[in-house]
Amino acid sequence: MQPHLKRAFIILVLVIIGFLFVRSFIVPESFGQYGWYRGDSVAELRDIPVGYAGSASCSGINNECHKTTYSIWVDSRHKTVNCETCHGPSEKHVIDTRVMPEPANDTREFCGLCHFKRAARPADFPQIDPETHGENLKCAYCHNPHKPWFL
Amino acid sequence: MDLSRREFTKFGCRIIIGAAAGATIVESIATLGVAQEESSNKEYDWNEHLWGYVVDTRKCIGCGRCANACKLENEVPFDEPVYRTWIERYRIVREGTEESVKIDSPDGGIKGFAEDIPAEEIKKAFYVPKICNHCDNPPCVQVCPVGATYKTEDGVILVDYNYCIGCRYCIQGCPYGARYFNNEKRTADKCTWCYHRITKGLLPACVQACPVGARKFGDLKDPESEINKILDKERINVLKADLGTKPKVYYVGLDREVR
What we know:
The structure holds two protein chains of two kinds.
Chain A: H1 3-26, H2 40-46, H3 67-74, H4 83-87, H5 91-95, H6 108-115
Chain B: H1 5-41, E1 51-56, H2 65-74, E2 85-95, E3 98-104, E4 122-131, H3 139-143, E5 149-151, E6 157-159, H4 169-173, E7 180-182, E8 187-189, H5 195-198, H6 205-209, E9 215-219, H7 226-233, E10 236-237, E11 249-252
Parallel strand pairs in B: 1-11
Antiparallel strand pairs in B: 1-9, 2-3, 2-4, 5-6, 7-8, 10-11
């Protein structure tokens, strides 16, 4: 073999080895474990802590927590509204009861997010005209949010 | 050995390609066995599930509790106009003899919708919740240059926040506008169907927050699941079906104006 070709081949082989060497450091170990991505990231995304605990956890494991409110709510027409939809994410409170979630928003506007009259809402959904109904009082002044009137 | 420059280049290229291909094959063989072993050890087996989502637009009241819950659960920057799920209001408005479609989504619907068009002028109005469609054929995954976004075996499209370089190509690639740039993480971000919740047997935060049951989530592989019963019974549509992305968010009662 001519010496200049020999040199070129040696350089080529060294470049390939160098490429593979550097690549083995740069590419994460779990890359390609399941597909063209870092396999460890699936576990990382799965391990993110939960924020919303779910209504079932509010009654407690042996029904020793919010017993009365829960039993009222579970029979009411608001039973499709999850506790945390109004009371906010409460997983931290479930784990440690000393950590209190923010108090529920009891303004007219908050109830109105669902119940103010809007043209785009299904017609059979209970809605009020905020101009004529309730004299600007808080809804909870007349209605129990855990067991609303009328059904 | 007498080689022309062209032959030398050809030969060199072959060696490089061959070595790279060889290394990839060796690597994939080496990791294949490991992957199968590990997935069988964990309690959640993603091969047993294929998640799907149903939105009943006839039930949605536009309260925005889904978008609110999503932001709190997933630490989406709350005061920035970025959303993993949001609600659009469609109003078909009479203007003389003409009709026009007005679409809006102020703050993603989180703060409610003001009634700024007189009711007499509105011919028809409805809300449409939007969310990542977790396409079976996702364009966003195809365009990622570094492999930082991928489809899991249970059909969820995820972003690897530690690997994303923030080039925003996937945000451009999504035909549904479901991706956004997270200024806090400095990466692309999107709905994960609350992957940290569904793998623990919980519902996504938006589904749990919905007070009227307009959003349903479940396992397409389970014939007894609620969403499979809806898919069997109702007339179903998907968004932009002509793009061939094969969305896994199915809409009931979708109007022809919805894009």
